Amino acid sequence: MTLYCNVCAREQLHRISATVTKLVSETSNENQGPFWYVSAQISECGGCGNFSFQEIFHDSDAPSEDDTSRNTYPERWYRLPRQYRAVPWVLESTYRELVFAYNQHWGPLPALSFLSTIGLSVLLEMICKDKGGTEADQRGRFGTVDSLEKLLPPNVVAALHEVRRLGNDAKHEFRHLDRENLGRALDAIESVLDTLYDLEAKAMNFHLQAPVRRRE
Fold this sequence. Notes:
Elements: E1 2-5, E2 10-25, E3 35-45, E4 51-59, E5 69-73, H1 89-104, H2 113-131, H3 154-173, H4 179-209
Helix pairs in contact: 1-2, 2-3, 2-4, 3-4
């Protein structure tokens, strides 16, 4: 069985150590439906040896693996949120919620796929309103992606316009990103957060810690 391992930070083969399965019914009579199977499974990572526990729900009328719902413990963190020093709290908390939604997106039933896609545009709008300044864009609007043109390279601004458009597609056209493109969009947002907020803080910290050179 292949399962993502938090310690190895990648998909790894897991050896199933033990499995217990029982039949569960919604009624007191086990002979009456609807009912489903519940399996408890312990597996060991072939890379690091860490154990995982899976709770697997399988409908009796849908035996295919695609219809199986799984809860895995400990929770899988396919992407860890970055640590920022100078990002405002409300932006950072929204960013962390977005990373959490992204991690849920990897499951067999990605229930947070729409929320994670919409969350990208929400976080982007928050950044624009915070860093866009008081000058209006070419259309007379404030706090838009175009308001970041003086702070970011043109290709980065173009990428942010694409993130904005994808978020609007999720809200109005009900189309969400797959996990690969969602990861790329998150990469872009993280780079923007680092450039607009943390880069100056890191430079200041380097200046304070750098040894003072004496003049000869």
